[in-house]
Amino acid sequence: MNCVVCREAQTVRGFSSIRFERDEFRAVVHQVPAQICPACGESYLDEVTTADLLKRVEQILEEGEMDIVQDYV
Ligand SMILES: [Zn+2]
Q: Considering the entire predicted model, what is its pTM?
């Protein structure tokens, strides 16, 4: 797809790190499959990946951990 942020390049398949913050809670998930713009670095997740990530973060929240770094597998 064409990058909608800079409109200068086609995105390429790669991996991104996604960060969530809510009050005291922080989670970072690395190695998330995404489309990356080689020109500006914007990353795009597909709907399935986004839904899965949100579910995962909700689960971490429920467990009450505050500062999580994990890989998306
Ligand atoms: Zn771009």
A: 0.79
Distance between Cα 18 and ligand 1 center (Å) = 17
Q: Which fold has domain 12-71?
A: Ubiquitin-like (UB roll) (3.10.20)
CA distances from 16 to 35, 37, 44, 63, 65 (A): 8, 11, 9, 25, 22
Residues around ion ligand 1, judged by CB within 5 A, are 3, 5-6, 37, 39-40, 42
Q: How far is the CA of 53 from the centre of ligand 1 (A)?
A: 23
pLDDT 10s digits, 42-72? 999 999 999 999 898 888 878 887 788 889 8
